[in-house]
Amino acid sequence: MSRATLPDLAVVAVGGAAGSLARYGTGLLIGSPDANGGFPFATLLVNVLGAFLLGALVEVVARRGGERGRWRTARLLLGTGVLGGFTTYSLYAGDTARLLLEGRIGVALGYAAATLLAGAAASGLGILAGRGIAPEAAAHAEDAR
Q1: Does 84 appear as a known binding residue?
Q2: Is residue 144 part of a domain?
Q3: Rg (CA), the chain
Q4: 100: number of CA atoms within 13 Å, CB side?
Q5: 43 lies in which domain range?
Q6: CA-CA distance, 14 to 19, in Å (whole number)?
Q7: Is 15 annotated as a binding residue?
Q8: Sequence-distant (≥ 6) Cβ neighbours of residue 77 within 8 angstroms
């Protein structure tokens, strides 16, 4: 396991700040659960979209350069930083708990299941999209350099 360097930490911090701002902006655009009948649409959206984007990013990075040079930096900035700040497991868990405590068990279970299933499907679609962005032949050509 490699040790993080100060530049790595700075890249993650900058990405995390951008992702957190994007999540906050999405919440403002879509509205809070209180504005949406108690359903956390914004949290569902950011988590599913984040799963798609992370799937695509991981696939592109793996096909283009793995953990070397600029691809490592791209993964740290966009994956760990931006998408780590954009997605939110803690708010997902909190929203689910709030719905359960309000006695909205069906909605809570539906939300929890929808987030997990849609996130898994989105991640798979993101991987397929990543394969389209970085075809296998391109990965081999870059490895040969």
Answers
A1: yes
A2: no
A3: 18
A4: 9
A5: 6-137
A6: 9
A7: no
A8: 11, 12, 14, 15
